[in-house]
Design brief:
By secondary structure, this protein is an alpha/beta fold. It folds into three domains: 2-69, Arc Repressor Mutant, subunit A (Orthogonal Bundle), CATH 1.10.10.10; 73-145 and 249-278, D-Maltodextrin-Binding Protein, domain 2; 149-247, D-Maltodextrin-Binding Protein, domain 2 (3-Layer(aba) Sandwich). It is built from ten helices and eleven strands. The protein has helices at 2-8, 12-26, 42-69, 82-85, 88-98, 112-120, 183-194, 208-216, 226-232, 262-275, and strands at residues 31-34, 37-40, 73-80, 102-109, 126-130, 140-154, 175-177, 201-204, 221-225, 237-241, 247-255. α7 links the parallel β7 (175-177) and β8 (201-204). The longest helix is centred in the N-terminal third of the chain and has 28 residues, at 42-69. The relative contact order is 0.14.
């Protein structure tokens, strides 16, 4: 009784009352007194294995709670553009999980329209996608990051002699571009129009990573995110700043009505920080 009261941080009379109340709830005596000591009754001895399992479960719950508070346990479900699933995201996620062995993660790549459906249906904690599709959607909360855009070409191209590339230098090029009608396609198309240069179409490739792979094989040029281009530099590909300066807009999105876990918020912060070196600044030369 003395040790129990010390462990619980209550008085011995309080422990006695707790035992009396529990005995009344169970309908039988918990202890009998023998030679001045409390001895468990036969009924309590039958319960001891279950009590032991319950105490082990409570210990595990306590440990899991500590891990959750320390962001070392839980789940993280991420929907993303297919290009991110094989480029930037795995590096950031690996660094995030390195000190959090109790966290499990899911990466599900798909097109932006599908990611929007998942966010509205609260099926994922976080989405990484093009920023245009989510403007003003009431079921989605987003944080927008604009990434610098560069002109990408084979490293044997004469374009490598230039410091800056404009649509005029690409008038006769074989341009690899995203699907016509998409918001990013229109941004690039408008940049060509602003220079009175028709946009030269060669290959339609929805993913930047596909365009980079083709260029590494010596096929075509592209205007795309520096974040994707940098991964391929030195593999048969090079790039230069593109003018007029335009951004590739990314959004980190999550469901409005789903309370984000501390793990989700911490990963979002880490992912956004990883994009800062590639961030488009509005004051960049747009000429």
């Amino acid at each position: 009784m003395t040790r129990a009261s010390r462990h619980l941080g209550v008085s011995q009379p309080a422990v006695s009352r707790l035992l009396t109340d529990l005995s009344a709830d169970l309908g039988f005596a918990l202890f009998e007194r023998r030679d001045g000591r409390l001895t468990p009754t036969p009924e309590v001895r039958v319960l001891l294995p279950d009590i032991g399992r319950l105490m082990d479960l409570l210990d595990r719950i306590s440990e899991t709670s500590r891990n959750l508070n320390e962001r070392k346990a839980g789940t993280l479900r991420i929907a993303c553009l297919p290009g991110f699933a094989v480029s930037h995201l795995p590096r950031v996620l690996a660094a995030f999980l390195r000190d959090r062995p109790g966290i499990t993660a899911t990466i599900e790549p798909d097109r932006p329209e599908r990611i929007l459906e998942w966010m509205v249906g609260e099926q994922f904690d976080l989405g990484i996608t093009d920023g245009f599709e989510f403007l003003g959607h009431p079921a989605v909360e987003r944080e927008q990051i604009d990434i610098r855009v560069v002109c990408v070409f084979p490293d044997t191209s004469p374009l490598a002699r230039l410091d800056i590339i404009t649509p005029r230098e690409l008038a006769d090029a074989r341009l690899i571009h995203t699907r016509p009608g998409t918001p990013y396609f229109r941004v690039v198309e408008n940049a060509f129009s602003a220079c009175d240069v028709p946009m030269p179409s060669y290959i339609e490739a929805r993913q930047f990573t596909t365009a980079c792979e083709l260029i590494c094989e010596g096929v075509g040029v592209a205007v795309l995110s520096e974040l994707d281009a940098l991964r391929y530099r030195g593999r048969g590909l090079d790039f230069r700043p593109f003018r007029p300066a335009i951004p590739h807009r990314l959004s980190l999105v999550r469901p409005v009505h789903k309370q984000p876990s501390m793990i989700t918020l911490e990963f979002m912060e880490m992912f956004i920080d990883s994009l800062r070196p590639f961030e488009f600044m509005p004051e960049e030369d747009t000429g």
